Amino acid sequence: MIIRTEGLQDYEAVYALHDAAFGNRDEESQLVERIRKSDCFVPELSIVAEQDGEIVGHLLISRADLVEQELRQEVMVLAPLAVNPAFQKQGIGSALMQEGLSRCRAMGYGLVLLIGHPAYYPRFGFKPAVGLSLKQFDVPAEIFMVNELIEGALSRAKGELIYPPAFFG
Ligand SMILES: CC(C)(COP(=O)(O)OP(=O)(O)OC[C@H]1O[C@@H](n2cnc3c(N)ncnc32)[C@H](O)[C@@H]1OP(=O)(O)O)[C@@H](O)C(=O)NCCC(=O)NCCS
What is the distance in A from the centroid of ligand 1 to the CA of 54? Predict the structure, then answer.
């Protein structure tokens, strides 16, 4: 299996992959397309898993803002992550997560936030984003999580996570 940066040639396969992984609805596929066209897109953080020439997994991490009154701090948001159902539970999701988080750290991004399954993401260092607020989505507190990639980043973070317009179609 190869983990690498997504290229233009992968767009079609990535669309089909999210469609299949999320149960034949193309919400996440379209989310990926909107993020790619937005200024929140970081090409190096759109990462695919390829096996025998086939795209079997994709992870996208993009930019968002944490806002506290006039203060605006750049943070990263992770969404979506998908592995082809026929290839799940083989470590592909974990490999994508590890690569994505290590690229973020290397690029100097100290915080990654997400809304996701509380049984899956803590193994990668995510914990409930206690103290940070989320107003655009009404979700249980335990599924709004943060990963502090650079020590000290979390203690300086406060405010409300603002997901960019690309997240809302
Ligand atoms: C979540 C997903 C990306 C994991 O990919 P994967 O390649 O199967 O992951 P890995 O093989 O690295 O890890 C498998 C582990 O994740 C767990 N897992 C998978 N989906 C899970 C879920 N929805 N909730 C909790 N745990 C989950 C498995 O039980 C397994 O746990 P174990 O290691 O303790 O046995 C994949 O199941 C998927 O694409 N799901 C559909 C899309 C989705 O829900 N994406 C995440 C949105 S938050």
Answer: 19
